[in-house]
Design goal:
alpha/beta; Dihydrodipicolinate Reductase, domain 2; 9 helices; 30% helix; globular
Length: 334
């Protein structure tokens, strides 16, 4: 039987579960699937393509005979197992931030820069979820008119903190409505009925690491080292799917009509832009969808020229922002 031996590292986590689903839904040519996790999860079972598969404890020997290893087990685990994976001859597609900014590790979204994937030396990195969702919408416009500056405000769902973040939002919401106390643990503050303008740790310049990822990763993936990016990342009480308000400045003039035409033809984009019908991107509609929803496209009225646009995007953080993107990278090698 033709196909690949695929390993999913972190198979019981929120992203790992979605990786397994995406492999099945997209009919990825899997010959053998190895589901790997910590000793605590070993022995649990997962249903895949009509078979019941048992989760194994991940060890350095787990990757013998593996062709592609999809990793979503955290940066420390990725660093620990990198050599074992590459020494076994497997391609490591990593969802963590461990290797994203290494010069010899391609950082890839297939709709944006698929050609970079072929330059790998054993490891390909998934970008940060907000970067991936944003660039699916922004890259087609950049190719048409050259993006020079981007200002982003992100509205990031609890799923960005994994299964524990979603569980905390649900439990804390129930407690809040019942008038009960619920001490936060996954987040710095109460997330139910609140916004938290703080994701990841703060840097000396006042930005968080999450916000600076948008700058550094966008420059790398668009091959635009001079691109100016400023971001404010906010955690919102949404279970799943991130949204972003984007202000874009281009080297050339571009109208909303031109932008809509470009985006309507762009892979991975669904245009949702009919304000008169109250139709625009929302996280509830992006949840479970492969495409990034793009709308609220309008000329930036703060400018005297027509080089600026504003738009709004929503995308499933666990899919295009993580699991789906990893599987799509693997598909580049089919």
């Amino acid at each position: 039987m033709a196909g690949f031996t695929v390993a999913v590292a972190g198979a019981t986590g929120a992203v790992g579960v979605e990786m397994v689903k995406a492999l099945e839904e997209r009919h990825f040519p899997v010959k053998n699937l190895k589901l790997l996790a910590s000793a605590r999860s070993a022995g649990k079972t997962v249903f895949f393509c009509g078979e019941t598969l048992r989760i194994e404890e991940m060890t350095p020997e787990s990757f013998k005979g593996v062709d592609i290893a999809l990793f979503s087990a955290g940066s420390d685990i990725s660093r620990e197992y990198r050599k074992a994976v590459t020494d076994a001859g497997a391609l490591m597609i990593d969802n963590s931030s461990a290797f994203r900014m290494e010069d010899d590790v391609p950082l890839v979204v297939p709709e944006v820069n698929p050609e970079d994937a072929k330059k790998h030396k054993g490891v390909i990195a998934n970008p940060n979820c907000t970067t991936a969702i944003m660039l699916v919408a922004v890259a087609p416009l950049h190719r048409a008119r050259k993006l020079e500056r981007l200002v982003a405000s992100t509205y990031q769902a609890a799923s960005g903190a994994g299964a524990k973040g979603m569980a905390e939002l649900e439990a804390q919401t129930r407690a809040y409505l019942a008038g009960e106390e619920y001490a936060p643990s996954a987040f710095a503050h109460q997330i139910a009925f609140n916004l938290i303008p703080h994701i990841d740790s703060f840097c000396d310049n006042g930005y968080t690491k999450e916000e600076l990822k948008m700058l550094n990763e966008s420059r790398k993936m668009l091959h635009a080292p001079e691109l100016l990016v400023s971001c404010t990342s906010v955690r919102v009480p949404i279970l799943r799917a991130h949204s972003e308000a984007l202000n874009l400045e281009f080297a050339e003039e571009i109208t909303p009509e031109e932008a809509r035409a470009i985006l309507a033809a762009a892979p991975g984009v669904t245009l949702v832009d009919d304000p008169a019908a109250k139709s625009y991107p929302m996280p509830k509609d992006a949840t479970g969808k492969y495409d990034v929803l793009v709308g609220r496209i309008r000329q930036d009225v703060s400018r005297r020229d027509k080089r600026g646009l504003d738009l709004f995007v929503s995308g499933d953080q666990l899919l295009k922002g993580a699991a789906l993107n990893a599987v799509q990278i693997a598909e580049l090698f089919c």
